[in-house]
Design brief:
single chain; seven-stranded mixed beta sheet; 22 helices; globular
Length: 634
Protein backbone atom coordinates (compact mmCIF):
# COMPACT_ATOMS: atom_id res chain seq x y z
CA UNK A 1 0.00 0.00 0.00
CA UNK A 2 1.34 3.42 -1.00
CA UNK A 3 1.96 5.92 1.77
CA UNK A 4 -0.92 8.41 2.08
CA UNK A 5 -0.25 12.01 1.03
CA UNK A 6 -0.26 13.83 4.37
CA UNK A 7 0.92 17.37 5.13
CA UNK A 8 2.36 17.95 7.61
CA UNK A 9 3.72 14.42 7.88
CA UNK A 10 2.65 12.80 11.17
CA UNK A 11 5.17 11.62 13.74
CA UNK A 12 4.10 7.98 13.32
CA UNK A 13 2.03 6.23 10.63
CA UNK A 14 1.40 2.46 10.68
CA UNK A 15 -0.51 1.22 7.64
CA UNK A 16 -2.65 -1.91 7.65
CA UNK A 17 -4.52 -3.80 4.98
CA UNK A 18 -8.04 -2.74 4.10
CA UNK A 19 -10.02 0.48 4.21
CA UNK A 20 -13.00 2.08 5.92
CA UNK A 21 -15.71 2.90 3.35
CA UNK A 22 -17.40 6.28 3.75
CA UNK A 23 -21.01 6.72 2.59
CA UNK A 24 -24.04 8.84 3.45
CA UNK A 25 -25.16 6.41 6.17
CA UNK A 26 -21.96 6.74 8.22
CA UNK A 27 -22.53 8.95 11.27
CA UNK A 28 -19.82 11.22 12.63
CA UNK A 29 -20.26 10.85 16.38
CA UNK A 30 -19.16 12.94 19.34
CA UNK A 31 -19.97 12.38 22.99
CA UNK A 32 -22.06 14.72 25.11
CA UNK A 33 -19.65 17.55 25.90
CA UNK A 34 -18.50 20.96 24.80
CA UNK A 35 -19.53 22.47 21.47
CA UNK A 36 -15.88 22.80 20.47
CA UNK A 37 -15.71 19.12 19.51
CA UNK A 38 -18.26 19.84 16.82
CA UNK A 39 -15.57 21.78 14.95
CA UNK A 40 -13.62 18.58 14.28
CA UNK A 41 -16.70 16.61 13.25
CA UNK A 42 -18.03 19.37 11.00
CA UNK A 43 -14.62 19.84 9.42
CA UNK A 44 -14.44 16.21 8.27
CA UNK A 45 -18.10 16.07 7.28
CA UNK A 46 -17.61 19.23 5.23
CA UNK A 47 -14.70 17.62 3.35
CA UNK A 48 -16.86 14.60 2.45
CA UNK A 49 -19.67 16.86 1.25
CA UNK A 50 -17.41 19.12 -0.83
CA UNK A 51 -15.32 16.41 -2.41
CA UNK A 52 -17.66 13.40 -2.56
CA UNK A 53 -21.08 15.05 -2.39
CA UNK A 54 -21.90 13.01 0.71
CA UNK A 55 -23.94 14.42 3.57
CA UNK A 56 -22.57 12.72 6.67
CA UNK A 57 -24.74 13.22 9.75
CA UNK A 58 -22.96 14.73 12.76
CA UNK A 59 -24.53 13.40 15.97
CA UNK A 60 -24.06 13.29 19.74
CA UNK A 61 -24.57 9.90 21.34
CA UNK A 62 -24.70 8.61 24.90
CA UNK A 63 -23.96 4.99 23.93
CA UNK A 64 -22.66 3.19 20.87
CA UNK A 65 -24.14 -0.34 20.99
CA UNK A 66 -26.25 -1.10 17.94
CA UNK A 67 -24.42 1.47 15.82
CA UNK A 68 -22.56 -0.10 12.87
CA UNK A 69 -19.98 1.68 10.75
CA UNK A 70 -19.11 4.94 12.47
CA UNK A 71 -16.59 7.74 12.83
CA UNK A 72 -15.85 8.72 16.43
CA UNK A 73 -14.28 11.93 17.76
CA UNK A 74 -13.71 11.35 21.48
CA UNK A 75 -11.90 12.99 24.40
CA UNK A 76 -9.51 10.75 26.32
CA UNK A 77 -10.58 9.98 29.86
CA UNK A 78 -13.86 11.82 29.77
CA UNK A 79 -15.41 9.55 27.14
CA UNK A 80 -14.07 6.20 28.38
CA UNK A 81 -17.50 5.14 29.65
CA UNK A 82 -18.97 5.67 26.20
CA UNK A 83 -16.24 3.61 24.54
CA UNK A 84 -14.21 1.50 27.04
CA UNK A 85 -11.51 0.68 24.48
CA UNK A 86 -10.70 4.40 24.36
CA UNK A 87 -8.13 4.16 27.15
CA UNK A 88 -6.00 1.75 25.13
CA UNK A 89 -6.11 3.94 22.03
CA UNK A 90 -5.27 7.01 24.11
CA UNK A 91 -2.04 5.44 25.36
CA UNK A 92 -0.34 6.85 22.26
CA UNK A 93 -0.92 10.36 23.59
CA UNK A 94 1.63 9.65 26.30
CA UNK A 95 4.36 9.80 23.65
CA UNK A 96 3.77 13.54 23.12
CA UNK A 97 5.91 16.02 25.12
CA UNK A 98 3.96 17.67 27.93
CA UNK A 99 4.25 21.13 26.34
CA UNK A 100 2.28 20.06 23.25
CA UNK A 101 0.22 17.13 24.52
CA UNK A 102 -2.95 19.22 24.32
CA UNK A 103 -2.46 19.31 20.52
CA UNK A 104 -1.65 15.61 20.12
CA UNK A 105 -4.04 13.03 18.68
CA UNK A 106 -4.33 9.36 17.78
CA UNK A 107 -6.22 8.01 14.77
CA UNK A 108 -7.19 4.35 14.49
CA UNK A 109 -8.87 3.26 11.25
CA UNK A 110 -10.26 -0.25 10.79
CA UNK A 111 -12.71 -1.57 8.16
CA UNK A 112 -15.56 -1.00 10.65
CA UNK A 113 -14.66 2.16 12.54
CA UNK A 114 -12.68 5.37 12.54
CA UNK A 115 -11.59 6.53 16.00
CA UNK A 116 -10.02 9.92 16.66
CA UNK A 117 -8.93 10.53 20.24
CA UNK A 118 -7.24 13.51 21.90
CA UNK A 119 -7.06 15.22 25.27
CA UNK A 120 -8.65 18.40 23.92
CA UNK A 121 -10.99 19.63 21.17
CA UNK A 122 -7.94 21.22 19.51
CA UNK A 123 -6.25 17.83 19.27
CA UNK A 124 -9.44 16.38 17.76
CA UNK A 125 -9.50 19.19 15.22
CA UNK A 126 -6.00 18.26 14.08
CA UNK A 127 -7.05 14.62 13.86
CA UNK A 128 -9.88 15.75 11.58
CA UNK A 129 -7.43 17.59 9.30
CA UNK A 130 -5.37 14.42 8.89
CA UNK A 131 -8.52 12.42 8.30
CA UNK A 132 -9.57 14.84 5.56
CA UNK A 133 -6.32 14.15 3.74
CA UNK A 134 -6.65 10.39 4.25
CA UNK A 135 -10.05 10.36 2.56
CA UNK A 136 -9.57 9.22 -1.02
CA UNK A 137 -11.59 10.38 -4.01
CA UNK A 138 -13.11 6.88 -4.05
CA UNK A 139 -14.60 7.45 -0.61
CA UNK A 140 -12.25 5.19 1.35
CA UNK A 141 -10.00 5.82 4.33
CA UNK A 142 -7.02 3.43 4.43
CA UNK A 143 -6.69 1.37 7.58
CA UNK A 144 -3.91 2.72 9.77
CA UNK A 145 -2.84 3.91 13.19
CA UNK A 146 -1.46 7.44 13.40
CA UNK A 147 0.09 8.95 16.51
CA UNK A 148 0.94 12.59 16.13
CA UNK A 149 1.89 15.83 17.83
CA UNK A 150 3.65 19.08 16.88
CA UNK A 151 7.24 19.96 17.68
CA UNK A 152 6.48 23.68 17.99
CA UNK A 153 3.63 24.77 20.20
CA UNK A 154 3.10 27.91 18.10
CA UNK A 155 3.06 27.53 14.31
CA UNK A 156 2.30 30.77 12.58
CA UNK A 157 2.05 32.87 9.45
CA UNK A 158 2.50 36.64 9.47
CA UNK A 159 1.09 38.58 6.52
CA UNK A 160 2.25 42.11 5.79
CA UNK A 161 -0.69 44.52 5.32
CA UNK A 162 1.38 47.71 5.54
CA UNK A 163 3.16 47.79 2.17
CA UNK A 164 0.12 49.11 0.30
CA UNK A 165 -1.97 45.90 -0.01
CA UNK A 166 -4.71 45.14 2.54
CA UNK A 167 -6.63 41.92 1.79
CA UNK A 168 -10.40 41.75 1.82
CA UNK A 169 -11.92 40.00 4.81
CA UNK A 170 -13.25 37.21 2.57
CA UNK A 171 -9.78 36.46 1.23
CA UNK A 172 -8.42 36.42 4.78
CA UNK A 173 -11.17 34.03 5.87
CA UNK A 174 -10.23 31.63 3.07
CA UNK A 175 -6.52 31.89 3.83
CA UNK A 176 -7.05 31.16 7.52
CA UNK A 177 -9.18 28.08 6.79
CA UNK A 178 -6.51 26.69 4.48
CA UNK A 179 -3.73 27.39 6.96
CA UNK A 180 -5.70 25.78 9.79
CA UNK A 181 -6.18 22.67 7.63
CA UNK A 182 -2.37 22.37 7.73
CA UNK A 183 -2.44 22.77 11.53
CA UNK A 184 -1.19 26.37 11.59
CA UNK A 185 -2.43 27.87 14.86
CA UNK A 186 -1.11 31.47 14.84
CA UNK A 187 -1.88 34.28 12.41
CA UNK A 188 -0.64 37.87 12.44
CA UNK A 189 -1.32 40.91 10.27
CA UNK A 190 1.80 43.06 10.27
CA UNK A 191 0.48 46.59 10.86
CA UNK A 192 2.23 49.94 10.71
CA UNK A 193 -0.34 52.57 9.68
CA UNK A 194 -3.17 50.40 8.32
CA UNK A 195 -5.27 50.45 11.48
CA UNK A 196 -8.28 52.77 11.39
CA UNK A 197 -7.88 54.65 14.65
CA UNK A 198 -10.72 56.89 15.86
CA UNK A 199 -8.38 59.02 17.95
CA UNK A 200 -5.84 59.35 15.12
CA UNK A 201 -7.88 59.03 11.92
CA UNK A 202 -5.18 60.55 9.69
CA UNK A 203 -2.90 57.58 10.33
CA UNK A 204 -4.79 55.03 8.26
CA UNK A 205 -6.94 57.28 6.10
CA UNK A 206 -7.44 56.21 2.47
CA UNK A 207 -5.28 53.10 2.92
CA UNK A 208 -7.92 50.37 3.12
CA UNK A 209 -7.10 50.13 6.83
CA UNK A 210 -8.45 47.43 9.13
CA UNK A 211 -11.03 48.68 11.60
CA UNK A 212 -11.43 47.34 15.12
CA UNK A 213 -14.66 45.70 13.93
CA UNK A 214 -12.76 44.01 11.08
CA UNK A 215 -10.30 42.58 13.60
CA UNK A 216 -13.05 41.35 15.91
CA UNK A 217 -14.79 39.69 12.97
CA UNK A 218 -11.57 38.02 11.83
CA UNK A 219 -10.83 36.94 15.39
CA UNK A 220 -14.19 35.18 15.61
CA UNK A 221 -13.56 33.39 12.33
CA UNK A 222 -10.21 32.15 13.64
CA UNK A 223 -11.53 30.62 16.86
CA UNK A 224 -13.39 27.57 15.47
CA UNK A 225 -10.18 26.66 13.60
CA UNK A 226 -8.05 26.98 16.77
CA UNK A 227 -6.06 29.81 15.20
CA UNK A 228 -4.83 32.49 17.59
CA UNK A 229 -5.01 35.90 15.91
CA UNK A 230 -2.12 37.72 17.60
CA UNK A 231 -2.31 41.49 17.95
CA UNK A 232 0.26 43.30 15.83
CA UNK A 233 1.12 47.01 15.77
CA UNK A 234 4.52 48.50 14.93
CA UNK A 235 5.69 50.53 17.94
CA UNK A 236 9.11 52.04 17.14
CA UNK A 237 10.65 51.99 13.64
CA UNK A 238 8.98 51.58 10.23
CA UNK A 239 6.71 54.59 10.72
CA UNK A 240 7.51 56.52 7.55
CA UNK A 241 3.82 56.88 6.62
CA UNK A 242 2.67 58.20 10.00
CA UNK A 243 5.70 60.42 10.60
CA UNK A 244 5.43 61.94 7.13
CA UNK A 245 2.06 63.42 8.08
CA UNK A 246 2.38 67.09 9.10
CA UNK A 247 0.71 66.61 12.47
CA UNK A 248 3.05 63.76 13.43
CA UNK A 249 6.36 64.66 11.78
CA UNK A 250 7.82 66.26 14.88
CA UNK A 251 7.49 62.93 16.73
CA UNK A 252 10.24 61.44 14.55
CA UNK A 253 13.80 60.78 15.67
CA UNK A 254 14.89 62.69 12.56
CA UNK A 255 11.94 64.67 11.12
CA UNK A 256 13.79 65.15 7.82
CA UNK A 257 14.04 61.35 7.49
CA UNK A 258 10.83 60.13 9.10
CA UNK A 259 11.09 56.49 10.14
CA UNK A 260 11.59 55.95 13.89
CA UNK A 261 9.57 57.36 16.77
CA UNK A 262 11.70 59.53 19.08
CA UNK A 263 11.81 57.73 22.47
CA UNK A 264 12.81 60.88 24.38
CA UNK A 265 9.57 62.61 23.35
CA UNK A 266 6.87 61.83 25.93
CA UNK A 267 4.16 62.42 23.34
CA UNK A 268 4.95 59.15 21.55
CA UNK A 269 3.88 57.22 24.64
CA UNK A 270 0.59 59.10 24.68
CA UNK A 271 0.20 58.24 20.99
CA UNK A 272 0.98 54.56 21.52
CA UNK A 273 -1.34 54.35 24.52
CA UNK A 274 -4.13 55.83 22.39
CA UNK A 275 -3.49 53.27 19.64
CA UNK A 276 -3.14 50.37 22.08
CA UNK A 277 -6.42 51.33 23.76
CA UNK A 278 -8.28 50.92 20.46
CA UNK A 279 -6.33 48.17 18.75
CA UNK A 280 -5.27 45.67 21.40
CA UNK A 281 -8.70 44.98 22.97
CA UNK A 282 -10.02 44.02 19.51
CA UNK A 283 -7.86 40.87 19.74
CA UNK A 284 -8.78 38.09 22.16
CA UNK A 285 -5.25 36.67 21.96
CA UNK A 286 -2.97 37.33 24.95
CA UNK A 287 -0.02 37.84 22.56
CA UNK A 288 0.95 41.16 20.98
CA UNK A 289 3.75 41.73 18.46
CA UNK A 290 5.02 45.29 18.94
CA UNK A 291 7.73 44.71 16.28
CA UNK A 292 10.26 47.51 17.11
CA UNK A 293 12.74 46.39 14.44
CA UNK A 294 15.15 48.27 12.19
CA UNK A 295 15.34 51.49 14.22
CA UNK A 296 18.27 52.51 12.04
CA UNK A 297 18.69 56.17 12.98
CA UNK A 298 18.07 55.78 16.72
CA UNK A 299 20.58 57.88 18.67
CA UNK A 300 21.50 59.97 15.65
CA UNK A 301 18.75 62.54 15.93
CA UNK A 302 16.66 63.93 18.77
CA UNK A 303 17.70 61.13 21.15
CA UNK A 304 21.43 61.68 20.47
CA UNK A 305 22.06 63.42 23.79
CA UNK A 306 20.49 60.58 25.76
CA UNK A 307 22.30 58.00 23.65
CA UNK A 308 25.60 59.75 24.36
CA UNK A 309 24.96 59.39 28.09
CA UNK A 310 23.64 55.83 28.34
CA UNK A 311 24.30 54.24 24.93
CA UNK A 312 21.99 53.57 21.99
CA UNK A 313 21.22 50.06 23.21
CA UNK A 314 19.89 51.27 26.53
CA UNK A 315 17.78 53.96 24.86
CA UNK A 316 16.22 51.15 22.84
CA UNK A 317 15.79 48.90 25.87
CA UNK A 318 14.18 51.64 27.96
CA UNK A 319 11.61 52.17 25.21
CA UNK A 320 10.85 48.45 25.10
CA UNK A 321 10.29 48.41 28.85
CA UNK A 322 7.92 51.38 28.71
CA UNK A 323 5.74 50.03 25.95
CA UNK A 324 5.72 46.64 27.65
CA UNK A 325 4.07 48.35 30.60
CA UNK A 326 1.54 49.93 28.24
CA UNK A 327 0.75 46.54 26.70
CA UNK A 328 0.27 44.99 30.14
CA UNK A 329 -2.49 47.51 30.81
CA UNK A 330 -4.46 45.66 28.15
CA UNK A 331 -3.49 42.17 29.39
CA UNK A 332 -1.13 41.48 26.53
CA UNK A 333 2.17 39.65 26.56
CA UNK A 334 4.48 41.51 24.23
CA UNK A 335 6.81 40.12 21.57
CA UNK A 336 9.42 42.04 19.56
CA UNK A 337 11.77 41.34 16.67
CA UNK A 338 15.21 40.51 18.01
CA UNK A 339 17.48 42.30 15.51
CA UNK A 340 18.23 45.44 17.55
CA UNK A 341 18.68 43.63 20.85
CA UNK A 342 21.15 41.26 19.19
CA UNK A 343 23.23 44.26 18.14
CA UNK A 344 23.66 45.00 21.86
CA UNK A 345 24.17 41.50 23.30
CA UNK A 346 25.33 42.83 26.68
CA UNK A 347 21.77 44.04 27.27
CA UNK A 348 20.00 40.77 26.40
CA UNK A 349 19.91 39.65 30.07
CA UNK A 350 18.07 42.87 30.93
CA UNK A 351 15.19 42.26 28.52
CA UNK A 352 12.07 41.63 30.65
CA UNK A 353 11.57 37.89 30.83
CA UNK A 354 7.90 38.11 29.89
CA UNK A 355 8.77 39.42 26.40
CA UNK A 356 8.90 36.86 23.57
CA UNK A 357 11.84 37.44 21.22
CA UNK A 358 11.31 36.92 17.48
CA UNK A 359 14.61 36.09 15.78
CA UNK A 360 14.37 36.59 12.02
CA UNK A 361 16.41 36.17 8.87
CA UNK A 362 15.30 35.38 5.35
CA UNK A 363 18.29 34.05 3.44
CA UNK A 364 18.86 30.31 3.28
CA UNK A 365 22.43 30.75 4.48
CA UNK A 366 21.76 33.30 7.23
CA UNK A 367 23.66 33.24 10.51
CA UNK A 368 21.40 31.60 13.10
CA UNK A 369 23.54 32.12 16.20
CA UNK A 370 21.11 34.71 17.57
CA UNK A 371 18.69 31.97 18.58
CA UNK A 372 21.14 30.45 21.03
CA UNK A 373 22.17 33.84 22.41
CA UNK A 374 18.57 34.55 23.26
CA UNK A 375 18.06 31.07 24.64
CA UNK A 376 21.14 31.41 26.86
CA UNK A 377 19.51 34.46 28.46
CA UNK A 378 16.49 32.33 29.36
CA UNK A 379 14.08 34.24 27.12
CA UNK A 380 11.21 32.57 25.35
CA UNK A 381 11.74 32.93 21.62
CA UNK A 382 10.36 32.05 18.20
CA UNK A 383 12.29 31.40 15.02
CA UNK A 384 11.11 33.46 12.06
CA UNK A 385 11.87 32.57 8.42
CA UNK A 386 10.08 33.85 5.31
CA UNK A 387 8.46 32.61 2.12
CA UNK A 388 10.79 34.69 -0.13
CA UNK A 389 7.86 36.28 -1.97
CA UNK A 390 8.56 39.99 -1.65
CA UNK A 391 10.17 41.88 -4.51
CA UNK A 392 9.64 38.77 -6.62
CA UNK A 393 7.19 37.76 -9.32
CA UNK A 394 7.13 34.21 -7.98
CA UNK A 395 8.58 33.06 -4.67
CA UNK A 396 12.18 31.94 -4.74
CA UNK A 397 11.28 28.39 -3.69
CA UNK A 398 14.86 27.22 -3.24
CA UNK A 399 15.74 30.06 -0.89
CA UNK A 400 12.41 29.79 0.96
CA UNK A 401 12.69 26.07 1.64
CA UNK A 402 16.32 26.37 2.72
CA UNK A 403 15.56 29.32 4.99
CA UNK A 404 12.49 27.73 6.56
CA UNK A 405 13.99 24.28 7.17
CA UNK A 406 17.30 25.60 8.58
CA UNK A 407 15.48 27.96 10.90
CA UNK A 408 13.04 25.24 11.98
CA UNK A 409 15.87 22.85 12.87
CA UNK A 410 17.93 25.56 14.61
CA UNK A 411 14.89 26.75 16.56
CA UNK A 412 14.20 23.24 17.80
CA UNK A 413 17.82 22.99 18.97
CA UNK A 414 17.65 26.31 20.83
CA UNK A 415 14.34 25.49 22.50
CA UNK A 416 12.18 27.95 20.55
CA UNK A 417 8.48 27.55 21.31
CA UNK A 418 7.22 28.93 18.00
CA UNK A 419 7.92 29.29 14.30
CA UNK A 420 6.48 32.39 12.62
CA UNK A 421 6.67 32.21 8.82
CA UNK A 422 6.63 35.71 7.32
CA UNK A 423 5.11 36.99 4.06
CA UNK A 424 6.26 40.57 3.49
CA UNK A 425 5.20 43.11 0.86
CA UNK A 426 8.28 45.27 0.39
CA UNK A 427 8.19 47.79 -2.44
CA UNK A 428 4.44 47.90 -2.91
CA UNK A 429 3.37 44.28 -2.37
CA UNK A 430 3.28 43.65 -6.11
CA UNK A 431 3.43 39.84 -5.89
CA UNK A 432 0.15 37.93 -6.18
CA UNK A 433 -1.10 36.42 -2.89
CA UNK A 434 -1.29 32.88 -4.28
CA UNK A 435 2.43 32.63 -4.98
CA UNK A 436 3.05 32.28 -1.22
CA UNK A 437 0.97 29.14 -0.71
CA UNK A 438 3.83 26.71 -1.25
CA UNK A 439 5.94 28.55 1.34
CA UNK A 440 3.03 28.57 3.79
CA UNK A 441 2.66 24.81 3.43
CA UNK A 442 6.38 24.19 3.78
CA UNK A 443 6.38 26.29 6.94
CA UNK A 444 3.44 24.28 8.28
CA UNK A 445 5.35 21.06 7.66
CA UNK A 446 8.57 22.30 9.24
CA UNK A 447 6.89 23.80 12.31
CA UNK A 448 5.07 20.50 12.92
CA UNK A 449 8.21 18.38 12.46
CA UNK A 450 11.50 20.12 11.55
CA UNK A 451 13.45 18.24 8.91
CA UNK A 452 16.41 19.53 6.92
CA UNK A 453 16.20 16.65 4.41
CA UNK A 454 12.73 16.98 2.85
CA UNK A 455 12.64 15.51 -0.65
CA UNK A 456 11.29 18.19 -3.00
CA UNK A 457 9.19 15.99 -5.32
CA UNK A 458 7.56 14.22 -2.39
CA UNK A 459 6.70 17.48 -0.63
CA UNK A 460 5.33 19.04 -3.83
CA UNK A 461 3.08 16.03 -4.38
CA UNK A 462 1.72 16.24 -0.85
CA UNK A 463 1.29 20.02 -1.14
CA UNK A 464 -0.74 19.61 -4.33
CA UNK A 465 -3.08 17.19 -2.57
CA UNK A 466 -3.38 19.03 0.76
CA UNK A 467 -3.96 22.51 -0.65
CA UNK A 468 -5.68 21.86 -3.99
CA UNK A 469 -7.04 18.31 -3.80
CA UNK A 470 -4.81 17.46 -6.76
CA UNK A 471 -3.71 13.82 -6.61
CA UNK A 472 -1.60 14.16 -9.78
CA UNK A 473 0.97 16.46 -8.16
CA UNK A 474 0.72 18.95 -11.03
CA UNK A 475 0.05 21.90 -8.72
CA UNK A 476 3.21 21.08 -6.81
CA UNK A 477 5.21 20.91 -10.02
CA UNK A 478 3.75 24.25 -11.09
CA UNK A 479 4.88 25.94 -7.88
CA UNK A 480 8.30 24.34 -8.11
CA UNK A 481 8.75 25.38 -11.74
CA UNK A 482 7.62 28.98 -11.23
CA UNK A 483 9.61 29.12 -7.99
CA UNK A 484 12.76 28.32 -9.92
CA UNK A 485 12.23 31.31 -12.21
CA UNK A 486 13.82 33.42 -9.48
CA UNK A 487 16.51 30.85 -8.68
CA UNK A 488 19.64 32.48 -7.32
CA UNK A 489 18.14 35.97 -7.57
CA UNK A 490 17.19 36.51 -3.95
CA UNK A 491 17.97 40.13 -3.11
CA UNK A 492 19.83 40.65 -6.41
CA UNK A 493 19.08 43.36 -8.94
CA UNK A 494 18.81 40.86 -11.82
CA UNK A 495 15.74 39.20 -10.34
CA UNK A 496 12.85 39.00 -12.84
CA UNK A 497 10.92 41.40 -10.59
CA UNK A 498 13.64 44.05 -10.96
CA UNK A 499 13.92 43.68 -14.73
CA UNK A 500 10.14 43.95 -15.13
CA UNK A 501 9.89 47.21 -13.18
CA UNK A 502 13.23 48.77 -14.16
CA UNK A 503 13.40 51.66 -16.61
CA UNK A 504 13.40 50.99 -20.34
CA UNK A 505 15.85 50.36 -21.89
CA UNK A 506 17.15 48.20 -19.02
CA UNK A 507 20.85 48.77 -19.60
CA UNK A 508 21.95 47.85 -16.07
CA UNK A 509 20.27 44.44 -16.21
CA UNK A 510 21.74 43.73 -19.63
CA UNK A 511 25.22 44.16 -18.21
CA UNK A 512 24.59 41.50 -15.54
CA UNK A 513 22.45 38.99 -17.45
CA UNK A 514 23.75 36.00 -19.33
CA UNK A 515 21.74 34.95 -22.43
CA UNK A 516 21.47 31.47 -20.96
CA UNK A 517 19.62 32.90 -17.94
CA UNK A 518 16.90 34.36 -20.14
CA UNK A 519 16.62 31.16 -22.17
CA UNK A 520 16.29 28.99 -19.04
CA UNK A 521 13.69 31.39 -17.66
CA UNK A 522 11.69 31.18 -20.88
CA UNK A 523 11.81 27.38 -20.99
CA UNK A 524 10.48 27.15 -17.45
CA UNK A 525 7.82 29.77 -18.12
CA UNK A 526 6.55 27.92 -21.21
CA UNK A 527 6.48 24.65 -19.27
CA UNK A 528 4.50 26.33 -16.50
CA UNK A 529 2.01 27.85 -18.96
CA UNK A 530 1.24 24.38 -20.31
CA UNK A 531 0.70 23.13 -16.75
CA UNK A 532 -1.64 26.05 -15.99
CA UNK A 533 -3.69 25.21 -19.09
CA UNK A 534 -4.03 21.57 -18.02
CA UNK A 535 -4.95 22.46 -14.44
CA UNK A 536 -7.52 25.08 -15.52
CA UNK A 537 -9.47 22.41 -17.36
CA UNK A 538 -9.19 19.86 -14.57
CA UNK A 539 -9.75 22.16 -11.58
CA UNK A 540 -12.03 25.05 -12.55
CA UNK A 541 -12.55 25.87 -8.86
CA UNK A 542 -8.88 26.90 -8.68
CA UNK A 543 -8.88 29.17 -11.72
CA UNK A 544 -8.44 32.35 -9.60
CA UNK A 545 -5.10 30.99 -8.34
CA UNK A 546 -4.15 29.89 -11.84
CA UNK A 547 -5.00 33.34 -13.23
CA UNK A 548 -2.50 34.84 -10.80
CA UNK A 549 0.12 32.38 -12.04
CA UNK A 550 -0.71 33.09 -15.65
CA UNK A 551 -0.32 36.81 -15.05
CA UNK A 552 3.09 36.27 -13.47
CA UNK A 553 4.14 34.07 -16.39
CA UNK A 554 3.00 36.84 -18.74
CA UNK A 555 5.36 39.15 -16.86
CA UNK A 556 8.20 36.69 -17.48
CA UNK A 557 7.47 36.58 -21.22
CA UNK A 558 7.31 40.38 -21.23
CA UNK A 559 10.75 40.52 -19.65
CA UNK A 560 12.28 38.53 -22.52
CA UNK A 561 10.85 40.98 -25.05
CA UNK A 562 11.92 43.97 -22.96
CA UNK A 563 15.50 42.68 -22.66
CA UNK A 564 15.74 41.84 -26.37
CA UNK A 565 14.34 45.20 -27.43
CA UNK A 566 16.56 47.05 -24.96
CA UNK A 567 19.63 45.42 -26.51
CA UNK A 568 18.44 46.29 -30.02
CA UNK A 569 17.75 49.89 -29.05
CA UNK A 570 21.07 50.40 -27.26
CA UNK A 571 22.95 49.06 -30.27
CA UNK A 572 21.62 52.04 -32.25
CA UNK A 573 23.71 54.39 -30.16
CA UNK A 574 22.74 57.81 -28.88
CA UNK A 575 21.71 59.24 -32.24
CA UNK A 576 19.77 56.13 -33.23
CA UNK A 577 17.88 56.16 -29.94
CA UNK A 578 16.79 59.74 -30.57
CA UNK A 579 15.16 58.69 -33.84
CA UNK A 580 14.64 54.90 -33.83
CA UNK A 581 13.89 53.18 -37.16
CA UNK A 582 10.25 52.52 -38.01
CA UNK A 583 10.51 48.78 -37.36
CA UNK A 584 11.98 49.39 -33.90
CA UNK A 585 9.24 51.92 -33.14
CA UNK A 586 6.63 49.31 -34.04
CA UNK A 587 8.18 46.87 -31.56
CA UNK A 588 8.25 49.53 -28.86
CA UNK A 589 4.59 50.38 -29.52
CA UNK A 590 3.65 46.70 -29.28
CA UNK A 591 5.53 46.40 -26.00
CA UNK A 592 3.81 49.53 -24.64
CA UNK A 593 0.40 48.12 -25.56
CA UNK A 594 1.23 44.88 -23.77
CA UNK A 595 2.46 46.86 -20.75
CA UNK A 596 -0.82 48.76 -20.53
CA UNK A 597 -2.80 45.54 -20.88
CA UNK A 598 -0.84 44.05 -17.99
CA UNK A 599 -1.58 47.16 -15.94
CA UNK A 600 -5.30 46.42 -16.34
CA UNK A 601 -4.82 42.76 -15.46
CA UNK A 602 -2.75 43.72 -12.42
CA UNK A 603 -5.58 45.98 -11.22
CA UNK A 604 -8.28 43.34 -11.77
CA UNK A 605 -6.33 40.64 -9.93
CA UNK A 606 -5.51 42.98 -7.05
CA UNK A 607 -9.16 43.88 -6.52
CA UNK A 608 -10.25 40.23 -6.56
CA UNK A 609 -8.42 39.54 -3.28
CA UNK A 610 -7.55 42.93 -1.80
CA UNK A 611 -9.04 46.28 -0.94
CA UNK A 612 -8.05 49.08 -3.25
CA UNK A 613 -5.83 50.23 -0.36
CA UNK A 614 -2.72 51.90 -1.81
CA UNK A 615 -2.63 50.31 -5.26
CA UNK A 616 -1.86 53.73 -6.74
CA UNK A 617 1.79 53.27 -5.77
CA UNK A 618 2.16 50.38 -8.24
CA UNK A 619 -0.16 51.93 -10.82
CA UNK A 620 2.06 54.99 -10.67
CA UNK A 621 5.02 52.80 -11.56
CA UNK A 622 3.06 51.41 -14.50
CA UNK A 623 2.47 55.01 -15.65
CA UNK A 624 6.13 55.95 -15.17
CA UNK A 625 7.38 52.98 -17.18
CA UNK A 626 4.81 53.71 -19.89
CA UNK A 627 6.45 57.11 -20.28
CA UNK A 628 9.78 55.34 -20.87
CA UNK A 629 8.32 53.61 -23.92
CA UNK A 630 6.37 56.66 -25.11
CA UNK A 631 9.49 58.85 -25.28
CA UNK A 632 10.73 56.79 -28.23
CA UNK A 633 7.43 57.16 -30.10
CA UNK A 634 7.21 60.96 -30.16
Amino acid sequence: MANPMLLPEPKSVQLQDGAFPVDDDVPVIIAPGSDQELNAAWSFAGEAEERLDMSLPVERMGKLDGIGHRILFLIAGRDNSLYPQLSSAADGLDRAPAAVRDQAYVLEVTPDQVLAVADTPQGLYYAAQTLRQLLTNDGDIPCCTITDWPTYRYRGVMLDISRFRVPTLDSLFERIERLAALKINVFQLYTEHTFASRRHPEMGANCGSMTAEDIITLDEVCKPHFVDLNANLQSFGHHKHLLSLPDYNDLAEIPEKPWTLCPTDERIYELLDDLYAECLPAYSSPLFNASCDETWELGNGRSAEMAEKVGVGRVYLDHIKRINELAQKYDKRMMIWADIVLKHPELIPEVPDDIVMLDWSYHAESDLSGLQKIADAGLEHWTCPGVSSWQQIFCDVGNACGNISRRAVAGEESGATGLLNTDWGDNGHAQSPAVSYHGYAFGAEQSWTPNAEVEADDFDRRFAWAWFGDDSGDFGRLYRTTGLLAEGSWKKRVAPFSIYWDRFPCEESLEKLQPSQIETMLERAREAIETVSTLSEKYPEHRPVLREHLFGLGQILFIEKKVALSAELLELGEEGMKKPPVDVKKKIKALLDEWNTQKGEFTDLWLETSRRSEIDYRLGMYRDRAEDYEQFLT
